[in-house]
Structure formats: C-alpha cells, structure tokens
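User: My collaborator sent over this chain with a note saying "see what the structure looks like." That's all I know about it. Can you take a look?
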Amino acid sequence: MPQYFIPRENIRDGRFFAGEEESHHILRVARVKKGDLIEIFDGQGLRHLAEIDKIEDGLVSGPLRSGLESPLYKLKLTLCFAAVSRPAMESLIVQCTEAGVETFQPVISSRAQAGFFGDWERKSPRLNNIILAASKQCGRGSLPGLAKPLKFDDLLLEGVPSVLAMPEGKSAAEVALALAGKTEIRLFVGPEGGFTNGELDFAAEKGALPLNLGKYTL
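Assistant: Without extra context I'll predict from the sequence alone. Here is the result:
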C-alpha cells in the first residue's frame, strides 16, 4: 500500500487533512473512496493508518485509526556525493533514500563538474520532491535531509567519522570493524574522475577510511 504525505500541522485532534496535491493523488490517481484505509506519514517519523470519511471541495480528510511502525537505522549515514550528471544524481537520491540514507550532502571537489551546484536554491526544490516521492514509495516515516553544497576539505575538517569509496580501499568487514560503535558516519563518493591524490592524502591525514565497494565500477 502506498503512503501519502501529510505535514505534521495537518494532523490534529485525531484526524488528518490532506492538501490539494495529495488529495488529487488519493482520489484521481489511486481512486481511493470514502471508507477506504490509507497509510499516511508526516516526514518527521510518524506513520498512521487512517480512514477517509470526508471528501469536500476535492480535499480528503478522516480519522487516524492506528499508528504504524516507522523503521529507523541506528547508524545515521550522510552520503557526501560529488557532482555527477543530473540523471545520475536523481537516480542516486532515489535509491539511497530507499536504502536509508539520513542526509544528502553535495560535495564541491577538484574534479567535480564546474558550476554544477550553482544556483542551488533553484535546483534543490526538485531534489527535495524526488526525496519525497522516494520516501512515499519505500515506507519511510522521516524524510532525508538535503544539505547545501560544501567543500570536500571543509567537511573533513569537521571531524565526523568518514569513509571514502575507492577501488584500493579496505573491505567492508575491515571498515565496519574500525567503525564499530559509531552512530554517525559520512560516506564520500567522488566525481566521475575520482578524487585527486591531494584530496586522498588530505582525507587520510584526517583519519578517513578508504572503502572498496566491490570488484566492479558502480
């Protein structure tokens, strides 16, 4: 069963009130009717089973019937990704939202496509819409965050436990052992040309661990 996004302010007094866009999806796309049950979430961790008992002026509302599990991973994973093509970035966001990434952090690195993250305020709403759609599909209760682009060096200077995806890295088992007990990790994925030697040296100096993701190019 798909779930529908209802902002926290539209869930009150034991009822939900769907906005225009979500009401259209419920009624016209999913063709749900009065008396039917739907799953809703607020993007902040709450999920409910709810019943539709009112349709007025194209807007849907109804009572909450029961709470639903909102699965969470204990490890908070921030995916720090360098600029790639637009289709690749959108695919990355969809799949990693479904995989449980907590935060998406765009990274400005030496070999990233120049200017790709320019005009971020205009580009980010579309990416947030992709995050929302993927969250609806996969049953997440909370929406991943989308941070503003930051420089590679500046992120590493913050001292958060970090891992760099690279062909010559350690095995997943070795890295997992080294990070045992950590509750927050940043995974860095480089641009199409990879990180420069200078960036790799700086990351090693700051304690970032190299991770081999497998035998094939991903």
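A starting point for your reply to your collaborator: The radius of gyration is 20 Å.
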